[in-house]
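Re: that backbone. Tokens:
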């Protein structure tokens, strides 16, 4: 049985809208979101998520050179 490894890992909290709009992917709590989804959310929802510390950078993991 092969173990699934995610392409992204959760990074630090995002605290500014300027940084948020530059990201292709983010973590909202423990779920990975693509910018097409989170940029279409209402501003108030995004703002409250940032105030509550729920939005994090999604950091792409390095690919293993052996293909694993």
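Recovered sequence:
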């Amino acid at each position: 049985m092969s173990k699934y490894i995610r392409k992204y890992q959760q990074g630090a909290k995002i605290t500014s809208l300027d940084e948020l709009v530059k990201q292709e992917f983010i973590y909202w709590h423990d779920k990975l979101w693509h910018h097409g989804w989170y940029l279409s959310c209402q501003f108030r929802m995004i703002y409250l998520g940032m105030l509550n510390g729920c939005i994090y950078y999604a950091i792409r993991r390095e690919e293993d050179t052996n293909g694993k």
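The first strand starts at residue 8 and ends at 13. Residues 8-60 form one domain.
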